[in-house]
Design a protein that fits this description.
This protein is about 70% helix and about 0% strand. The protein is mostly helical.
């Protein structure tokens, strides 16, 4: 494969350029869509199209043809295999692992809401639970969250597929997981452009980096992107419904702390890693670590 650069053995530079080009691709997609749709204001371009299309461009065009991954002498098919996009076996086991890991993160998020409610000194009863956890609010026809959350799928291909694979060419698995998770956390600094409180953005960066440890671990443990895709998609789809009480009542700093602990952070990450280790040992035959 030919490319403008050859950065397959320079993962840190490669990763920072991924961040840079990801940002540029988002801008270019917004401009292109506003011209195609003849929109007077570029802010009228609706989610998830800019991020979704930018991620797709990064995976299938920018990374292989501009930034030189996977490198000289490799075919496009080998590139897709190295980033684990074509590895989906055993399919049923991978799906079950993804769904069960999502159940863990959903229960952790719900536990965070209940803990916050109790810390307020208010009762937790059946009425509160029924009002607070209405998952149907994120499904059609009430919401288009199912569409917005689709960005999670190419996002996993980019960060747990391409970026993680780039680090694996130079570092061992543990360091590669950590380094790619840090870069994934850094990606969320762009949330500051949405006018969100700085403390919330910091919590989002930290939480994403911590959760990125699980996404990297489960990807290498199963040699597939599928479980991470499932967890990431479902977690983004239902997080607003599960966590709405905390977001509506907590201060920005408290919401950030609860986010790092319960929503996308320490507790679900630890539990999902332990469960993945147990699940793969007992039920999945193909393992890489």
């Amino acid at each position: 494969m030919r490319s403008l650069f050859s950065l397959s053995r320079r993962p840190w530079l490669f990763s920072f350029l991924i961040l840079f080009f990801w940002f540029i691709c988002n801008i270019l997609v917004i401009i292109a869509l506003s011209l195609i749709l003849r929109l007077e204001d570029q802010t009228q371009v609706q989610a998830p199209w800019p991020t979704l299309l930018a991620n797709i461009l990064m995976v299938f065009i920018v990374a292989p043809f501009v930034l030189g991954f996977p490198g000289k002498g490799h075919t496009y098919r080998q590139y897709l295999s190295e980033i684990r996009l074509t590895k989906m076996r055993p399919l049923l086991g991978l799906i079950l692992l993804g769904l069960s890991c999502y159940l863990i993160i959903a229960l952790s998020q719900a536990a965070g809401v209940l803990v916050y409610r109790l810390m307020e000194g208010l009762p937790v009863d059946g009425s509160f639970i029924r009002r607070s956890f209405v998952l149907a609010n994120e499904l059609p026809p009430r919401s288009n969250s199912w569409l917005i959350s689709l960005t999670s799928i190419p996002e996993e291909i980019l960060w747990r597929g391409v970026v993680l694979a780039a680090f694996l060419r130079v570092y061992d698995q543990r360091k590669s997981i950590i380094f790619s998770a840090l870069i994934f956390g850094a990606l969320h600094i762009f949330n500051v452009l949405n006018g969100l409180p700085p403390i919330w953005v910091i919590g989002n960066i930290v939480g994403a980096a911590i959760t990125g440890l699980f996404y990297g671990y489960v990807t290498l443990k199963t040699d597939s992107l599928l479980p991470a895709m499932i967890v990431h998609y479902l977690a983004n789809l239902f997080v607003a419904a599960i966590n709405s009480y905390v977001q509506a009542n907590a201060s920005a700093s408290a919401a950030a702390v609860y986010g790092v602990l319960f929503t996308f952070g320490i507790i679900p990450t630890i539990l999902m890693i332990f469960w993945t280790r147990f699940f793969t040992r007992r039920w999945l035959i193909t393992q890489k670590s």
